[in-house]
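Form P-L/3: holo structure prediction, ligand D-arabinaric acid.
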Amino acid sequence: MNAAVIEPSRIDDVVETIVASTPIVDIHTHLYDPAFGELLLWGVDDLLVYHYLVAEAFRYHDLPAEKFWALSKPQQADLIWEELFLRRSPISEACRGVLTTLQALGLDVRRRDLPALRQWFKQWKAEDFITRCLELAGVKSLCMTNSPFDEVERLVWEKGFRRDERLAAALRIDPLLMAWEETAPVLARWGYSVDPALNGKTISEVRRFLEAWSERIKARYLMVSLPPNFDFPSDSACARLLEDAVLPHCRDSGLPIALMLGVKRQVNPQLRGAGDGVGLSNLGALERLCARFPQNKFLVTVLARENQHELCVLARKFRNLHVFGCWWFMNVPGLVEETTRMRLELIGLSVTPQHSDARVLDQLIYKWQHSRRVIAGVLAEKYSDLARTGWAVTEAEIRRDVEGLFGGEFERFCGNRS
Ligand code: RAT
Ligand code: ZN
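OUTPUT (holo model):
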């Protein structure tokens, strides 16, 4: 490692090179091990029917929603390609992402030839394509999102498979916290003696369920996405299950709980998976959680731009809170830049500035290429500011810091590294 002090005029280049080449731990994705078969999405049709693009295409075509959903995946992809890429220039972030990805894979986007693109993907097997995408994205490992409540997924876990060391698991528990009335009978069917009334026996059975699944999938953390009106403490089943079952389980097993705050589900149900929106969260609830449960670790990301500042301030008050990622409506270059700058200025390097949230394997490439560029720009500005104070900025220290931002700080927070 080069410990030499960097000339101020070289800071931009050095930071860019280090940020571009540092391997990443992608702490939240929706990708799967190939053992999960069809659940692992990849290829140009899946890139095009990404729910971000579905929502954008609905702004232009006039197909009734039910007609759109009745189309096959390639037909939906054709329509989206036509509306978003051919009839107008594909400048939105999600459109640009498709092109960045295809280009990085070595495809010629100038020809605008969707059948040829489809043909190219046919040569790949999922197992090999994972390695190719991880290499091109510079991702050394990633966390999946794993739900026992998904029938297909659950059966694969129960049957067992050989784990790919690069793909870690995260236990997703939205149905448990957000739809207790419907989930209680499901747990009962699986042999847990639970009652909708949330009595002591039920709570210990929910904990038994969480223990079994955390262990089975070797979860790195538990995770839930919560709506803007989430409150704590409260009499809701969500708050009570969180307090009495989930948090004690996380404490005892040393696992963090990841909270994704601010998704307003099904603002437009006709759009199905593309129909969710955003709302301002009440971060007072998070403040109370962090204060009341110092032994719990909270990994938190917020969807509303207007919540970002308060979240940073909370992180300054609670060391059991780790801020991560700019996802979905936040994952556009302008907002990533603003948010990353705010985080670095308020909480320094004790943050994981980005995760990919990739739903399609190939998306790892663009999500990281775009984010690295923005993060490098903000970091270069910060190291230049440091150099102006007379502080000696070294390459080795920049590398150390970037490794922290790209996974090291997350590992330290989780307790896997000092
Ligand atoms: O960003 C997304 O793809 C969203 O659909 C959500 O899945 C979000 O990332 C989540 O995990 O809830
Ligand atoms: Zn997600």
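COMMENT: The first strand starts at residue 24 and ends at 26.
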